[in-house]
């Protein structure tokens, strides 16, 4: 078989590990050939390809990013998109396409597979960990470790100056990074998109923390919203999946806290540092296993499926089920963290 591969959406540590595992097993065990498509769905849409053989995947296991490049191109929005994708797959004699991506990239794979008969297999990635039907996505553990280290470092400088330090982490619709890193780093307040926050309550937690002679650390997900406000966005522009660019809630919080409590407050926006660089051992392990199982699904022609982690097992679930809704933070998980607030 000739297997096409693409990586779409925001990049994430572990993408290269998936491709290495697929190519190594696919070539060695099944005798398959591979072809890479560049920059997510732009590759099949425009017929932009890249060599993907064993030499191409040598040495990439610990490398962040993606050797194929990524983009947020949506072929379903492009003129004649489906026809062009089909034509380019046929031109390159592709028998199956593996899409490695999050809700948007895999949503396209699901439609192309179910509605247009394009043989796709999905592999779930996102640092946000918000894909349904899998316990974890790779990239998340790396992001949480980076954010936790940042929180650890912020504690000592916050205490030296008795300042409030706000740290803004990624998480558009789901607060998994904020919750896990906040718990691991001993944050005094964690704010997530799933639960609107009351700024008066946040200020009360800040004041109570200062009473025990410690400076508070607040972890806020970029998609978190005050009770009577909206998401804070960078500008109004939308990507081709209709997402607006976020960031700014950290600065908004620091200003409000200074105004209301009189305490000095500063913000650190972690941004793309959470997505760059080498994956943790857990993410390399998960990405490698996803790759091994994805090529098995391809070999068995089990299309329209996504590989997923359940406990320690890798299973296959329908792409349509995985992309039907987002996996957000369960209220009980947020409530258990609240004992540490203030
Ligand atoms: O989808 C993952 C993610 O990291 C989100 O948390 C964030 O909102 C978004 O990507 C940022 O993407 P970009 O770098 O393309 O603006």
Automatic annotation (TrEMBL):
Cofactor(s), names only, from the UniProt record: Mg(2+)
Presence of the UniProt keyword Transferase in the record: yes
Pathway the protein acts in: Carbohydrate degradation; glycolysis; D-glyceraldehyde 3-phosphate and glycerone phosphate from D-glucose: step 3/4
Domain spans labelled Phosphofructokinase: 2-298
InterPro entries: ATP_PFK, ATP_PFK_prok-type, Phosphofructokinase_CS, Phosphofructokinase_dom, Phosphofructokinase_III, PKF_sf
Signal sequence segment: none
Site feature Important for catalytic activity, where: 125
E.C. numbers: 2.7.1.90
Binding site for substrate: 126-128, 163, 170-172, 222, 266, 272-275
Record-annotated active site: 128 (proton acceptor)
Site keyed Important for catalytic activity and substrate specificity: positions: 104
Pfam family, one: PFK
Metal-binding in keyword set: yes
Reaction it catalyzes: beta-D-fructose 6-phosphate + diphosphate = beta-D-fructose 1,6-bisphosphate + phosphate + H(+)
SUPFAM superfamilies, per database record: Phosphofructokinase
UniProt keywords, alphabetically: Cytoplasm, Glycolysis, Kinase, Magnesium, Metal-binding, Transferase
Subcellular location: Cytoplasm
Means of activity regulation: Non-allosteric.
Binding site for diphosphate: 10
Principal place of residence: cytoplasm
Binding site for Mg(2+): 103
Oligomer status and interactors: Homodimer or homotetramer.
Family stated for the protein in its record: Belongs to the phosphofructokinase type A (PFKA) family. Mixed-substrate PFK group III subfamily.
Function: Catalyzes the phosphorylation of D-fructose 6-phosphate, the first committing step of glycolysis. Uses inorganic phosphate (PPi) as phosphoryl donor instead of ATP like common ATP-dependent phosphofructokinases (ATP-PFKs), which renders the reaction reversible, and can thus function both in glycolysis and gluconeogenesis. Consistently, PPi-PFK can replace the enzymes of both the forward (ATP-PFK) and reverse (fructose-bisphosphatase (FBPase)) reactions.
HAMAP family: Phosphofructokinase_III (MF_01976)
Protein name (record): Pyrophosphate--fructose 6-phosphate 1-phosphotransferase
């Amino acid at each position: 078989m000739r297997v096409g591969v693409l990586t779409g959406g925001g990049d994430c540590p572990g993408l290269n590990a998936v491709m290495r595992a697929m190519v190594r097993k696919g070539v060695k065990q099944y005798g398959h050939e591979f072809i890479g498509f560049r920059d997510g769905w732009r590759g099949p849409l425009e017929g932009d390809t890249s060599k993907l053989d064993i030499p191409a995947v040598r040495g990439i296991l610990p490398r962040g990013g993606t050797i194929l490049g990524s983009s947020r191109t949506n072929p379903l929005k492009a003129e004649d998109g489906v026809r062009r994708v089909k034509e380019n797959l046929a031109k390159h004699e592709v028998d199956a396409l593996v899409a490695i991506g999050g809700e948007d990239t895999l949503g396209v794979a699901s439609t192309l597979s179910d509605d247009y008969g394009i043989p796709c297999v999905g592999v779930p990635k996102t640092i946000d960990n918000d894909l349904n039907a899998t316990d974890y996505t790779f990239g998340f553990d790396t992001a949480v470790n980076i954010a936790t280290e940042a929180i650890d470092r912020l504690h000592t400088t916050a205490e030296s100056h008795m300042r409030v330090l706000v740290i803004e982490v990624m998480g558009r619709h789901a607060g998994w990074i904020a919750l896990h890193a906040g718990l691991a780093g001993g944050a005094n307040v964690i704010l997530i998109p799933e639960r609107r926050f009351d700024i008066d309550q946040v200020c009360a937690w800040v004041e109570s923390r200062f009473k025990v002679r410690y400076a508070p650390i607040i972890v806020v997900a970029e998609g978190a919203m005050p009770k009577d406000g909206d998401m804070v966005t960078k500008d109004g522009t939308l990507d081709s999946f209709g997402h607006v660019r976020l960031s700014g809630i950290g600065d908004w919080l620091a200003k409000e806290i200074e105004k209301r409590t009189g305490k000095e407050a500063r913000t650190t926006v972690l941004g793309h540092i959470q997505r760059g660089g080498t994956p943790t051992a857990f993410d390399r392990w998960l990405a490698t296993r996803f790759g091994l199982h994805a090529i098995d699904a391809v070999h068995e022609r089990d299309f329209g499926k996504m590989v997923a982690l359940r406990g320690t097992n890798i299973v296959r679930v329908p792409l349509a089920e995985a992309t039907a809704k987002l996996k957000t933070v369960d209220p009980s998980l947020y409530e258990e963290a609240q004992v540490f607030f203030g």
